[in-house]
Amino acid sequence: MPKEETNILKQLADGNKIVIQELYTAVFPKVVSFILKNKGDRADAEDIFQKALLQLIARYKVKSFIIESSFEAYLFTVCKNLWRRELNKEKKRVTNDAVVELSREEDDMTMAALEQEKWELFQEKLNEISDNCKQLLQLFFQKTPYKKIVEKLGYSSDNVVRQRIFNCKSQLAKLIKKDPRYNDIKEL
């Protein structure tokens, strides 16, 4: 992690009010905008931002980790992932009159941190495969139709694209499973 990013993380963990205020000024408006565009409100954005900060502090205090991008971009990504997780939880909740027991906040934070670690491992390994595979999988993950992929990347048919995607996914899975961190986080 670049020294500046490490310093921000350390100062955040130490409760440095200036750093926290700078993060609120720089990142929070982007988080609010993202959440408002994705079925949330300002209160949701405040909750998510707080959870993201607490998650980063907890992870920093327990185990060091590397931030490959800028700290602000990383924090925004953590917030986006937490909000997507909240939306997925809402989908899974039973909405009838039965009492629904919600998970404890600490368990929720732990799961979010582990999911973030999984995402980071996935992104790291995605960057290790060939540029062609990376581009193909990014289009696939964006749910781009096979016919558009054929046109965009110049493959001869949908079947060739399907086979290539399968091979690229297999390469990515092998890289992920070979990483020693995989066994620590796969149990999610």
Task: Provide a descriptive summary of the structure in words.
This protein has 188 residues and is mainly alpha-helical. It has two domains: 1-104, RNA polymerase sigma factor, region 2, helix turn helix motif (Rna Polymerase Sigma Factor, Chain: A); 128-188, no CATH class. 75% of the residues lie in helices and 0% in strands. The chain has ten helices and no strands. The longest helix is centred in the middle third of the chain and has 22 residues, at 71-92. It is globular, with a radius of gyration of 19 Å. The two termini are 26 Å apart.
User: Helicity, in percent?
Assistant: over 70%
Q: End-to-end distance, in Å?
A: 26 Å
Fill in the CATH topology of the largest domain.
Answer: Rna Polymerase Sigma Factor, Chain: A
CATH class identity of the largest domain:
Mainly Alpha
Domain count: the total is 2
Q: pLDDT under 50 segments (min length 5)?
A: 94-104
What does the secondary structure layout of this molecule look like, with pairings?
Elements (H helix, E strand, L loop, with lengths): L2 H11 L3 H10 L1 H10 L4 H21 L8 H22 L12 H22 L4 H11 L4 H8 L4 H21 L2 H5 L3
Short description:
Keywords: DNA-binding, Sigma factor, Transcription, Transcription regulation. By secondary structure, the protein is an all-alpha fold.
Fill in the keyword field for this structure.
188 residues; Rna Polymerase Sigma Factor, Chain: A; 2 domains; 75% helix
